[in-house]
Write a sequence for this structure.
């Protein structure tokens, strides 16, 4: 037992900083608190490692969940080399950039009433249905510019160039962070594109070309690190880039899913070792927690 | 209380059929058992309703989880009008069609050892890494045929025409069931396409054209029904087709996710009413259960 | 790979029995389906092993969830040597024995309205509040008989002797199955006892004496087997009996909890090996599923 | 929409305090972050309300999880009127008071090896098995004092009087906080008592007498508030005290369980309104999160 670390109990002190709280969690070292602390440590290390190419995969209801500033802030560190996300995140972030807001609601509600009021519910966050009008205007007005894109990544870059500063796509445009979104069709932005196509417009964007770029970036790196908030396509798309290039040396994921169903979203990072997605001696941790709780706390510790 | 149904207790009898077990669950009417029964009833009704256009969205580790025959069987009823799935499902199903198998394993294992043995782990199911060779052969040999595709849907249809009978894509090819897979790039099949592109081959498949087809089908229906096994892109892609056409009249989903995080995968079907994805008076139910348990049981009751 | 079992896909056939469905799940052998099958196999083996003393620990909302007949049926096999449960289960089962019922309801309800109607909600199962009157009558009428008890186990045995045939406590009384319920105070039955004590009656039942009996039974066995439906006190009370006597040779648990929080309810059975509660070479499995689904299915396979 | 609050995005600033982070979560107001903030607000209000009698129910692996100082700190506010807990918590806290420690471990371990090393695992926290010797010494040495107890509550009070300052039971002894633990038999402390009884010693502690005291406290209050960390017996024992006295006016629970299984641990507080355990207009919130994450964060905000 001499080599073992005792569980030091977390001590809350007056006015303690969030970073100090996470440090206390590191000293306790077990259960969820220990994982929050370890996640923050590894994330910090990965971002500080100049040789590390950081892939940030993000899914889930983060913008309607109040995480916009934090995601922007992470991108603004200039340490994210690749951002992979869902069409939903880009839609939610873009509608806020266009001046709309999400609203605090409740899940104990008559959804038919919400529908009459024009409110689309995501658990206890509401999006006004009118955002589709604003989005449609944007796509109609800018269609010619968008048709210059030769890949989903380029399309998102052009959208970014047309959006106000406070948006994921504009930030990534300016910082030259490629944004990958393989299932962009599956989103409000996808629906706007469908609307244009249905109106007879043309858009020639190949479905598979982005893969070359993300795998090349992973290949050309000295080492790779992955940071996943949620699972789904963003996590898996990064994971397969690791599999067909260089195994990740660092890994942090925040998930509420479980491994027992066998799906990619709930898979422990450790599983990636069998696939050659993660180095056997990588530093990694799975944080099992609602990301709207874990991410702010970890980011407060990493950012300092 | 006179109008309320009592909870009748489930009675197990000698040699009882699985369908009879689900009938007993219907009589109990509460908790998970009640939802299994209600799910089977609504699924049966939706499949029997000649006016109903049925959308089947499926995600998660179903083929490595032993659900292949059941998914094939559901498609072979000829009552599925649209199948939306993940690239992973199509990859797993295709490698089995090409003669490979998945293997019974364990999660309590040294993943580095598995990696040396060439086994890719999905919780307690192993896929031999050599499947990628078979897949690569298939794509190399059939590349010219595949390049005739003008959409992901057409690409999958052509792949189906080239596969043996015992496969999702061949069954759907023969029964003219369109298969949609917006994030096909994010899969083993996607990687094979990347391999060809990296080798200088061309493939011109637009990323957004399938949306027109799925939304048209939903528009042209008398009424729609949705059946979701798992969440992710398949569920959401069907849901947005409902939102921009006709609200679903029937809905059944099997999920292990929770609604509280706000994501699409864990969202209760009821939430879709606010979005105009589900009719307020639709028949629907959420089944909170591992799909490898719930789906066989429900299908045994529906199929009879 | 030659030594590995392939994942055989579950095949649903017309009129197939529930037992045959579980056999198919055994052939698939992975994920939740595989665990259901393994659970049924081990449970069957444990019940068939004449040398095995079977401890059945049960918690959770099973009687309002429609599981009464199955729990009775398991006890009626005469293969359960010890039953450990919660006060809630005994209360729910007893009120049904006294002629009351639980009712099918919904969780989407105004709980204040339910309160006015005298309905107590357990998710989507309702218990009429009037059951407390029937319970109170029973305890008032039989108080003198009950005061003869010298332990909680004896108290429950006397209650059983006074109840109709269709009840856990009467079945256990007749079959001489000791029923342990360390937290009986924490239940409707406990409240009835409080009512009598508050009215000045006396009851002299020592809190710790049952421990001697359960640990003795575990000591005097040739080998032990544990079957847990849910966690809480019933599981832990059996587990500590194993720890201080003979490690279990068989173990099956059905749980919806997770191991990551460190609590007893979600702990994998494997963890018990470190404590000396489970033999390192025991046959055991954790089934991660709603018990109202898993238990009927497994019992249909075990009972045949 | 004019009456709705927008989701304000959480902003992380340099050196921000944990309390400020929770304030930001209050401004976002949705999902898990919103619930953490609301939980902290209601807990603070309940503790500040001089008319409120606060019941603190705590279950789960909190001491081996690093929460000892926080639990002590909450008790030391002198605002907790009743503490209800598990035998496991009291055992873990007592063995630390006797000089033992818990250790940081891992769940990816051979439990048979741990067993040989004398380490008992709780997920990734290890307890040395030798703690039972220290516990046994304590109970042997102090047995005569303990036999003076006339209830479990008194027994725990006497144990507290004999322990060092840094322990739940000593703190509660000094502050005259009654500690209720209906299932004390189900714990290491229970096992020590069993050891004495097995050695022929006597202990006459009635199982049901504590109920009178907890219900009286709830009756005699102006209003009640409940704070639950975890579910199980502690939550339910408080809940039934509310049911048979005064409904709670404030409620905060931290849980990782789900409501759909119908059990008490996962039940939403709202359900208690139907039972008459919670006022329809009470202030209450369910926080769905690992308590080793949620509790430190909330306590940092409440304590300030």
């Amino acid at each position: 037992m001499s080599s073992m670390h005792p569980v030091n109990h977390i001590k809350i002190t007056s006015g303690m900083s969030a970073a100090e709280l996470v440090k206390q969690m590191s000293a306790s070292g077990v259960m969820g608190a220990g994982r929050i602390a370890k996640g923050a440590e590894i994330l910090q290390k990965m971002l500080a490692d100049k040789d590390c190419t950081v892939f940030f995969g993000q899914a889930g209801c983060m913008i309607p969940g109040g995480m916009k500033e934090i995601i922007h802030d992470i991108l603004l560190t200039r340490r994210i080399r690749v951002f992979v996300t869902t069409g939903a995140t880009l839609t939610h972030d873009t509608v806020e950039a266009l001046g709309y807001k999400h609203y605090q609601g409740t899940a104990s509600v008559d959804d038919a009433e919400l529908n009459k009021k024009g409110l689309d519910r995501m658990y206890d966050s509401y999006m006004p249905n009118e955002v589709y009008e604003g989005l449609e205007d944007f796509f109609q007005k800018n269609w010619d510019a968008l048709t210059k894109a030769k890949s989903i990544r380029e399309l998102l870059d052009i959208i970014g160039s047309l959006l106000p500063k406070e948006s994921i796509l504009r930030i990534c445009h300016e910082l030259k962070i490629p944004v990958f979104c393989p299932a962009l069709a599956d989103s409000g932005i996808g629906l706007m594109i469908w609307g244009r196509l249905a109106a007879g417009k043309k858009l020639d964007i190949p479905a598979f070309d982005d893969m070359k770029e993300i795998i090349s970036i992973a290949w050309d790196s000295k080492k790779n690190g992955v940071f996943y908030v949620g699972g789904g396509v963003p996590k898996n798309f990064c994971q397969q880039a690791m599999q067909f290039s260089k195994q990740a040396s660092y890994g942090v994921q925040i998930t509420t899913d479980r491994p027992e169903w066998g799906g990619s979203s709930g898979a422990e990072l450790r599983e990636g070792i069998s696939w050659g997605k993660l180095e056997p001696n990588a530093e990694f941790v799975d944080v099992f927690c609602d990301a709207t709780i874990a991410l702010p706390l970890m980011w407060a510790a990493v950012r300092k």
About this structure: The beta strands of chain B are 52-58, 80-85, 103-104, 119-122, 125-128, 179-180, 223-229, 248-255, 278-288. Chain B touches chain C through 64 residues (CB under 8 Å).
